[in-house]
Amino acid sequence: ELRLKLKQLKESKRELLRNSSNRAEDIAAILEEKKTIEEKLFQKEGELEEEMLAKEKHYNMLLDELRNKNMTLLYNAQQERKENAQKIQELKQYAIELEDEAEWLTEEIRDLYALLPKEEEEELQASVLREKEASVLREKEASVLREKEASVLREK
After folding, report:
1. Among 31, 34, 52, 114, fewest CB within 10 Å belongs to which?
2. What is the dihedral of CA 66, 70, 76, 82, to 10 degrees?
3. Exposure on the CB side of residue 87, measured as CA atoms within 13 A
4. Which helix (H) or strand (E) covers residue 14, if one does?
5. pLDDT per residue of the chain (156 residues) written in tens, 0 to 9
6. What is the rounded distance in angstroms from the CA atom of residue 147 to the CA atom of residue 59?
7. Is-contact 84 149, C-beta < 8 A?
């Protein structure tokens, strides 16, 4: 009976040795797989970092391009405002010159009336009246034009 038990113990011992040997092989395989996974993970991290840097570079390039376009648009808008202000000043000056010329012409016409006989004076007055009406129309057109320009400037 003791021999049988001894034999069983020896058999159990062999079984345990076999299992521990298998476990060692399993552990070695697991460690190898872990190493492989870590290497792949490290490689993937490197690839992702490179990709992230490339995207960041592209993003910065787009941002710089956008800033440049914005600055160009701002500069162009300022130039356009200056040009529009200059045109408005020129139109105001032209309107003043037209008013001065109209005053001068009115004085000249009055002086001529004094020299003309009554019939010619009436004819001339009718002609001047027509010219004044035309002048008023031109002034209205100029006023509408100034209003439109002012509206455009306000919109900008």
Report:
1. 114
2. -170
3. 13
4. helix 2-115
5. 888 888 888 888 888 777 776 777 878 888 999 999 999 999 999 999 999 999 999 999 999 999 999 999 999 999 999 999 999 999 999 999 999 998 998 898 888 767 766 777 677 778 888 888 998 898 888 888 888 888 888 887
6. 45
7. yes
